[in-house]
Design brief:
By secondary structure, this protein is of the alpha+beta class. It has 4 domains: 202 residues, 2-Layer Sandwich (Heat Shock Protein 90), CATH 3.30.565.10; 174 residues, Ribosomal Protein S5, domain 2; 152 residues, Rossmann fold; 83 residues, Dna Ligase, domain 1 (2-Layer Sandwich). It has 22 helices and 25 strands. Strands 1, 2, 5, 6, 7, 8, 9, 10 and 11 form a 9-stranded mixed beta sheet that branches. A 5-stranded mixed beta sheet has the order 12-13-16-14-15, sandwiched between helices. The longest helix is centred in the middle third of the chain and has 30 residues.
């Protein structure tokens, strides 16, 4: 028991040995889940599935698993089944308990550290499945091996009972089945999205052509299933990404090879690419099936050898005239869609997030494998080679035009951060970390936002109508668009070769548009601009979407705001205090005309539907959409870059049929848009 003197010192804020907390087992994961899965939002929720699936994929990389099945169960839990070797169940010599329990409950425990077990793997740190276990309300694992079916159950990461045999497995059948329910005390939203998981499985199927991946949604009213198996591998992957863009080539380039690093370990390289008639570079890189969206040495090696080999071919075949513009690396990548996949025994990543490869030796290996095969491919396919060089020459001419446009813009101070657009209402604080820029649709909404904002840290930039669709425009055309120039000017980072995130003037860039069809279109145009020409701002987490309310429900002095029909109905029920379900349903489906107030029966309630941001007065806009204490904003993130690229191409490209199919497929997710 502490003495009075000790308690007094403690009250005075003394830092003692008693203040040191030691977290054991999986406690660190439950205390700081974001350190292990990124966050506890929808993204982190789905990351749990990927961790378990990645373990199964590692079995496939080792040559043992060929089928992986994922199901979203009726109770919202997830099941992942593979036909690999099955997690070992014998007694671990050091831990004195089943190896299965060790794998499920001990951080940094797994087979990925022993290269005789897994030559290459995505799970390097041995934290994947144990983290899933720690963050689950319950988890069950079944292992088929040695002719037996083993079972163990856990609650919040702790074993309920020891590993036990619950039956016999089928003859020669091996594999692992993991079923888990995310912990509701950690994840506020435990609803899985079928398409989000399906996108990741599709990506893995392209990268692993020998594996069949299936997903089934067993929830009532959501029943659907898909199977992914692409024997063509990366070639099919490139064609899928470019399916909405016309290809310039009759034959896609493909190369596969390997070489040893300085320690004698084999590094495998696989690359596929083709060119389209658009203007963006789309290169997707993977290391041991992990999407390295920040690139790394494998990407540097590919870009270097692509530029060198194409330049050499153009020079050798006299395709480039003496007085023509000089070709650069950027020119050779315009309209390029490529997938680079490497298998590295000891990859060096930037932390557990695994977003950038750092192995220096991989650069030279990629250059060697791709350069030799690309030179041969160009000689064997002269018509395609000529189309590529001609495309690059047109890109060089456009680059030169863009350079002149930028120089002209600089002379007019259009892109200089020191000269801000006249319609920008800037904030007084200069520290970007604490500043926000609202890009607001329309002068009316911009006026309300300017009056309702906190002038210290919130800046307002109103834009008129719909900006240029950058998906179908080269840079010199983009720079001619006044609204886009104002956006570049306000943000301050520059664009293209001038881009520098260090010059960013606002820590949060928030897109605020009306909740109607036009507003949705403008929001998509702005997101396309950021994705294509300021992607780093998205990757660094600077881009957000505001969520203005659709309804105001008023009863007496009480005012409540609802962001969708369901929330509006809940407010109506709560204010009425009725318990009869039929009556609740009747009131919840009352028809509300846009911009009008309607009294709901005799309850004295009035419901206003906001047609646009301009209908809100400054106080309403502040309290519902701009006040950091009460607002809801959605952070824009790219979970799957290949699918994001394809989606932007579908929505903003020239092809009509893919866009119609996308709209019909996703119409059920649209929130109260005015058609």
């Amino acid at each position: 028991m502490k003495s009075e003197k000790e308690n007094k010192k403690k009250q005075e804020g003394e830092y003692t040995a008693d203040d040191i907390t030691v977290l054991k087992g999986l406690d660190p994961v439950r205390q700081r889940p974001a350190m292990y899965i990124g966050d506890v939002s929808t993204r982190g929720l789905h990351h749990l599935v990927y961790e378990v699936v990645d373990n199964s994929i590692d079995e496939a990389l080792a040559g043992f698993a060929h089928n992986i099945d994922v199901s979203i169960n009726k109770d919202g839990s997830i099941t992942v089944i593979d036909d690999g070797r099955g997690i070992p169940t014998g007694i671990h010599a050091e831990e004195k308990r089943s190896a299965l329990e060790v794998v499920m409950t001990v951080l940094h425990a797994g087979g990925k550290f022993d290269k005789s077990t897994y030559k290459v793997s995505g799970g390097l740190h041995g934290v994947g499945v144990s983290v899933v276990n720690a963050l689950s309300e319950w988890l069950e694992v079944e292992v088929s091996r040695d002719g037996k079916l083993w079972f163990q159950k856990f609650k919040q990461g702790n074993p309920v009972e020891p590993v036990k045999v619950i039956g016999k497995s089928e003859e020669k059948k091996t594999g692992t089945k993991v079923t888990f329910l995310p912990d509701g005390t950690i994840f506020k939203n435990r609803t899985y999205k079928f398409e989000t998981i399906a996108e990741r499985l599709r990506e893995l199927a392209f990268l692993n052509p020998d594996v069949v991946l299936r997903i089934a949604d067993l929830r009532k009213g959501e029943e659907q299933e898909e199977e992914f198996h692409f024997k063509g591998g990366l070639i099919e992957f490139v064609k899928y990404i470019d399916s909405t863009r016309p290809s310039l080539l009759k034959k896609s380039f493909y190369a596969k090879g390997q070489d040893k690093d300085e320690n004698g370990r084999v590094v495998e390289v696989e690359v596929a690419f083709q060119y389209n008639d658009q203007y963006n570079e789309n290169i997707f890189t993977y290391v041991n099936n992990i999407n390295t969206h920040e690139g790394g040495t494998h990407l540097i090696g590919f870009r270097t050898t692509l530029t060198r080999t194409l330049n050499s071919y153009a020079s050798k075949n006299n395709i480039v005239k003496e007085n023509s513009v000089q070709l650069t690396g950027d020119d050779f990548r315009e309209g390029l869609t490529a997938v680079i996949s490497v298998k590295v025994p000891e990859p060096q990543f930037e932390g557990q997030t695994k977003t950038k490869l750092g192995n220096s030796e991989v650069k030279g290996i990629v250059e060697g494998v791709v350069g030799e095969r690309l030179a041969t491919w160009l000689d064997e396919n002269p018509p395609d080679a000529k189309r590529i060089i001609e495309k690059c020459l047109r890109a060089a001419e456009a680059r030169e035009a863009a350079r002149k446009a930028r120089e002209l813009a600089r002379r007019k101070n259009a892109l200089e951060s020191s000269t801000l657009p006249g319609k920008l209402a800037d904030c007084s604080i200069e520290d970007p970390e604490h500043c926000e820029l609202y890009i607001v649709e329309g002068d009316s909404a911009g006026g309300s936002a300017k009056q309702g904002r906190d002038r210290r840290f919130q800046a307002i930039l109103p834009i008129k109508g719909k900006i240029l669709n950058v998906e179908k425009s080269r840079m010199h055309k983009i720079l001619e668009n006044e609204e886009i120039r104002c956006i570049f000017q306000a943000i301050g980072t520059g664009v293209g070769e001038d881009f520098s995130s260090a010059k960013l003037r606002y820590g949060k860039i928030i897109i605020m548009c009306d909740a109607d069809v036009d507003g949705s279109h403008i929001r998509t145009l702005l997101l396309t601009l950021f994705f294509r020409h300021m992607r780093e701002l998205i990757d660094l987490g600077h881009v957000y979407i505001a969520q203005p309310p659709l309804y105001k429900v008023k009863k007496g002095k009480q005012e409540h705001y609802a962001f969708d029909d369901e929330e509006r109905d809940e407010i109506i029920k709560r204010l009425k205090g009725e318990k009869k379900k039929d009556a609740e349903k009747e009131e919840a489906t009352v028809e509300v005309m846009e911009g009008e107030e309607v009294v709901v029966n005799s309850s004295g309630m009035a419901i206003s539907r906001f047609k646009g941001l301009g209908e809100m007065n400054p106080e309403q806009l502040w309290s519902t959409t701009m006040n950091p204490e009460t607002r809801t904003v959605l952070q824009v993130a790219v979970e799957n870059a290949a699918d994001a690229d394809r989606t932007f191409s579908i929505l903003m490209g020239d092809e009509v049929e893919p866009r119609r199919a996308f709209i019909e497929k996703n119409a059920k997710y649209v929130r109260n848009l005015d058609v």
